Give the backbone structure.
Amino acid sequence: MGIRLRSMIPQSKQIVRLQSFLIRNQLSTTTPVPKGHCVVYVGETEMKRFVVPVSYLNHPSFQILLSRAEEEFGFDHPMGALTIPCKEAAFLDLTSRLNAS
């Protein structure tokens, strides 16, 4: 049990770092987006702005989210960026798994 817990600690620290990175990068709409990143609005009712690496867009799990967003919103994104209709916790979980791989 102790060995398993110790092996999970580095992964937990990585998840916390990613979450703090994503939260810090909920930039205002006037802040320029860094090269190699894109803006994604996430939420079911209240949308939060995240800046994510463009490389996430090619990952199959992320593409599933994009397909769902296309079904719900089409290609007209009123926020001016990609809009993904999912729970923020689910998005953070997915991005932490993408960051870990």
User: Anything to note?
Assistant: The longest helix spans residues 2-24. Residues 18 and 45 are 23 Å apart (CA to CA). The mean pLDDT is 74. The longest strand covers residues 37-42.
